[in-house]
Structure formats: C-alpha cells, structure tokens
Amino acid sequence: MGAESNYGGAGVGYMDGTYLPVAEMRIPITDMGFQLSDMCYDAVHVRNGRFFRLDDHLDRWEQSISERRYDTLNHSRDQVGEVLHGCVARAELSDALITFVATRGSPASAHKDLRSCKNRFMVWAMPYYAAIEDAEVEQGCEIIVAKTVRIAPGSVDPTVKNFGRLDFVRALFEAYDRDARYAVLPDQDGHITEGRGWNIFVLKDGVLLSPDRCVLEGITRKTVLELSAKLNIESRLAEIPIEMLGRADEVFLTSTAGGIMPVCSVDHRAVGDGAPGPVTLRLKEMYWAMHEDPAYSVPVRYEIAEAL
Ligand SMILES: Cc1ncc(COP(=O)(O)O)c(C=O)c1O
Questions:
Q1: What's the gap in Å between 216 CA and the centre of ligand 1?
Q2: Beta strands 141-145 and 182-184: pairing type?
C-alpha cells in the first residue's frame, strides 16, 4: 500500500488562537499529547449546513476535559462552540467532520511535571467522511474479531474519547493479515467492545444489543437506541459474547463518521444473507432524516466568515 497522502489536504483549523489551513497545523514534539497520548477529543458533524447533536458532543467534551483535568484550556463551552462554527464557516463546508482536541501541552522543564503544562486547544473541520469506504457504507463491510484485547477501563477510561489507541492499531494489523480492513476488539472476558472509530450493534431474534462496557458512549449509539424505541424494537446495552456475533441476524457499526454502517461478514462468514438487513436500513434512513429536525440540529453560522 503506502499511497501518497491526501488526508488533511482540505479544511480549516484553529490552534493557539489562530485559524489556518489544516495542512499547516503542527504541534511541538514537547507536547505531552504527542509523548504520552495525554489528550482527549470529540468529533461532531455537519450535514446540509447543520450541526447534528452539537450539545451532546459539547456535554461529552466537557466531561472528558474535566476527567482528564485539563484545567488550563481557557476555552469556555461557548468559545469552543464559536470556534467549531468558525472552522466550518471558513472552510465553506456544508458536509463536514469537525474534530476538537485538548492536549496536556508542553511542560516547564524536562522533568515533565504535568501540572506545569499549559493545555492546548485545537480544532479542525474537514469535508465529511465515513469511518469505512463509501461503497461499504452502502453494501456492508467485512470485520474480524481481533485477538487483541481492548485496553481495560481501569487503565484508560474509554468514555473519554482519546487517541491512545495502540490496541486498535494492533487489532487492525491482525485484520490486514487476515484479509479484512476492520476489527472489533474483545474485552478480557470474551465480550465484544468496539473498533477504531465506531460502536457496534447486533440484532438477534428481534432484539438490538450493543456492548455495555469498555466502550465510548457514542452519540450515534444513543441515537440508535432512541430510534429503535420509536420503531418498537427492543434495544439495550448488554454483555455480548463473541459467539453471538457469528449468530446475529444483522450487525452494524455506528459513528459520527458514517452514521449507521452495515456489516456483511464477521470473520469471513456472512451475516444473514450478506446484504444489509431491513432493520439496519430502516434505522439508517431515520437517522439521516433526523438531521433536518431542529430538535437535533442547529444551522452553521456561516455569516461568521462573511463578516471577516
Ligand atoms: C472508539 C470509538 N468508539 C465509538 C465511536 C462512535 O462514537 P460517536 O457515535 O459519538 O461518533 C467513536 C467515534 O469516533 C470512537 O472513536
């Protein structure tokens, strides 16, 4: 593989108080975000010029920065919101994925006392993309169950969204070696958890289940639970043994990056008849319809850019 990268080739970012092209964003190697993965982030999207569930993302963000003790970030919730709008408006994007990050920052001396760091805040807005290929979003993707175990919540809290992801990296190389592109990781006790960038759902005998531990509390996951209630489909968070995945009637992934994404095979064995199932397709349709509803979305303030 090893193709020329165009990742980050378009979009507008913000760091150290300034807006700039994403391709020009840099952090110093002394930032503990780089050296220790001492960072957290959130990612929200814009569809047809509207942010989806922005308040939910800001709530999760505030919880993350509080738990990680980023006390010197100096950006209030309103200021963070302003910058999110500012990046999308400046990038003139109607469909965007916006990542906002806090890093610990650089320490005062080589002894690296973390309390001496000035936390860093940065944002970037890029054209919208899914966690899997566009064709797979339509037809379904192939996943494997990795042997690599998800990092234990007692070590790194998975509800704080973060880039400390060497478990995912190891699992993805397992997938590549087994002729697949995506991997779901088990926990220590043989239950499935999540993959890099997504939660997972399993439909079995009319009941929709998603893992109840060792995972990020995804906002798309929350949306699916709400939508399934509207469809009168029983849904709940539960322990899901690895074996249940192989016997599922439908399986799909959920993420801000891509929405509801069907899985057509697990460990190279077809899920159902190998095509996206009816419940997956119905939820997907309802999910995208929700984006126009003012109860769940707010318009981007494009006038911020025009006023410059
Ligand atoms: C590890 C992990 N799990 C789950 C998700 C899905 O979360 P959300 O639906 O809030 O995008 C993500 C999103 O990037 C993620 O990184």
A1: 6
A2: parallel
Q: Which residues pair with 126 in a beta bridge?
A: 97
Task: Give me the mean pLDDT over the 63-67 stretch.
Answer: 97
What is the distance in A from the centroid of ligand 1 to the CA of 152? Answer: 17
Strands (E), the chain: 12-15, 18-21, 39-47, 50-52, 96-103, 120-127, 141-145, 182-184, 199-204, 207-211, 235-238, 250-255, 259-266, 269-270, 297-299
Total domains in the chain come to: 2
Q: In terms of domains, do 206 and 244 share one?
A: yes
Cα of 99 from ligand 1 centre, angstroms: 12
Q: 264, 37, 66, 65: which is closest to 168 by C-alpha?
A: 37
In a domain, 284, yes or no: no
CA–CA gap between residue 243 and residue 241 (Å, rounded): 5
Is residue 3 over pLDDT 90? no
Q: Which of 163, 88, 82 shows the shortest CA–CA distance to 126?
A: 88
Establish if 304 belongs to a structural domain.
no
- List the residue whose alpha carbon is closest to atom 7 of ligand 1: 218
* Distance from Cα 160 to the centre of ligand 1, integer Å: 10
CATH of the domain at 141: 3.20.10.10
Contact 123, 84 (CB under 8 A): yes
Position 228 pLDDT exceeds 90: yes
In this structure, are residues 225 and 161 in contact, taking their beta carbons and an 8 Å threshold?
no
**Minimal CA–CA distance to 126: which of 94, 103, 149, 155?**
94
* Percent of the chain surpassing pLDDT 70: 98
Question: Which residues are near ligand 1 (CB < 6 Å)?
Answer: 43, 161, 194, 197-199, 216, 218-221, 254-256
Query: Taking the complete model, does pTM exceed 0.90, yes or no?
Result: yes
Among 127, 160, 186, give the residue marking a domain's end. 127
Residue with tokens 């391709």: 23
